[in-house]
Write a structure and sequence with these properties.
Length: about 400
């Protein structure tokens, strides 16, 4: 089976053609500068052949057409005809409280995604453009929407409700939704499989990348997660502030005479470890500068590890114990020093890291000692595979 996985942003569109049963990717790429001029970056996995080509992309429709053309191209293609694509899976940011699972895209589904635009104003319109462009380019082809929020829909009200006047929940649907759900689902499911279904009732997943979030998972179901109504909440991130006192925003708006949107832009794009380090939003740059003695970078790393550690403590309390702690995403999979920093002092919870195993990167590996009460894993995330698997299942 060939599943085309699409992740459409406002000016970009990522794609992968993959086999959902083996996880093998045959081709992948990125359309960028959509609406400006347009450029296709394409890679054939088996041969390693790459193509970068300027192609006019006034809208997402032309971007999808460029993807279709390159996939059947005589030199860079991997299929003979578009008919060989069995179904298309779309990553959709916000499913609000309407979607608890992935679904086949029909008019009702599209309307529901549209209804969630106030909750995901940047991403949902772009996701819809990607869906509609695929409908035009491949009429009749089954399409599936996979929501970043769906996995978190099992949270109980005490975790998802905000302690603000009820009408904002009943009328406006303001609540904790959580994001990275496809990753949290993939990684927690994989953890349970790898543990053979035993001693994996209570799992904390740390998805630590440019955007970071944690989730508390009991019996495979999400109980709580660190992001909220938007991806701004939780631990500090590359450029996002994470949890702050709302009065900080009020103070800054008053002092600078800026609007709420401008302030939020600052909290989303100019804060986090970028702001603390004064060097970069990229953890590799910050770690390198900290190693050279940069005190601001040391603080940025300490702050990040401290806030992640606090969430782990909170979620262990929420779950009533902890069986498995899982690290994933760019930082979680690759930075042994960050994992060590986070786990330091968690011995009281039963977390004991093996320093040698913790040096391993980018593979499924246990990094705790055999006598550690909590099994600590590194499990590389694969959101595209999860999307492809959901798509295949629903299309079948
Ligand atoms: P996104 O949220 O954009 O999907 P990723 O999960 O790809 O992000 O994570 C990107 C982050 O991972 C970057 O900050 C990058 O510096 C960090 N990262 C990648 N490799 C390493 C490494 N070897 N050591 C430390 N950080 C790393």
């Amino acid at each position: 089976m060939n599943i085309l996985v699409i992740n459409a942003g406002s000016s970009s569109l990522k794609y992968q053609l993959m086999n959902p049963d083996t996880g093998d990717v045959t081709a992948k790429g990125l359309c960028e500068r959509i609406g400006l001029d347009g450029r296709l970056n394409h890679k054939v996995i088996a041969s390693g052949k790459k193509l970068v080509k300027d192609i006019p992309m006034p809208t997402h429709k032309e971007a999808i057409e460029a993807v279709m053309d390159i996939l059947v191209d005589s030199e860079y293609g991997v299929i003979k005809s578009v008919d060989e694509i069995d179904a298309v899976g779309h990553r959709v940011l916000h499913g609000g409280d309407k979607f608890v699972a992935s679904c086949i895209i029909d008019d009702a589904c599209k309307q529901a995604i549209r209804d969630c635009i106030p909750l995901g104003p940047l991403h949902n319109p772009a996701n819809l453009m990607g869906i509609e462009a695929c409908e035009k380019a491949m009429p009749g082809k089954p399409q599936v929407a996979v929501f970043d929020t769906a996995f978190h829909m099992t949270m109980p009200p005490k975790a998802y409700r905000y302690a603000i006047p009820t009408k904002y929940y009943t009328e406006d649907h303001l609540r904790r939704y959580g994001f990275h759900g496809t990753s949290h689902r993939f990684v927690s499911k994989r953890c349970i499989e790898l543990m053979g279904g035993k001693n994996a009732d209570k799992i904390i997943v740390c998805h630590l990348g440019n955007g970071s979030s944690l989730s508390a998972v009991k019996d495979g179901k999400c109980q709580d997660t660190s992001m909220g109504l938007s991806p701004l909440a939780g631990v500090p991130m590359g450029t996002r502030a994470g949890d702050i006192d709302t009065c900080v925003a009020q103070f800054i708006m008053n002092k600078e005479g800026i609007s709420a949107d401008e302030c939020l832009n600052m909290l989303n794009k100019k804060s986090g470890v970028l702001a603390l380090s004064g060097v970069s939003s990229d953890f590799r740059d910050i770690e390198a500068a900290a190693d050279q003695g940069n005190e601001d970078c040391k603080l940025a790393l300490e702050k990040f590890a401290y806030e992640v550690k606090k969430y782990i403590g909170a979620y262990a309390a929420a779950l009533g114990g902890l069986d498995c702690l899982v690290f994933t995403a760019g930082v979680g999979e690759n930075s042994g020093s960050m994992r060590a920093r986070i786990c330091e002092g968690l011995e009281y919870l039963g977390v004991k890291i093996d320093a040698e195993k913790n040096k391993l990167r980018g593979e499924e590996v246990i990094i705790s000692t055999p006598d550690s009460k909590v099994t600590v894993w590194v499990i590389p995330t694969n959101e595209e595979l999860m999307i492809a698997q959901d798509t295949a299942e629903l299309a079948r």
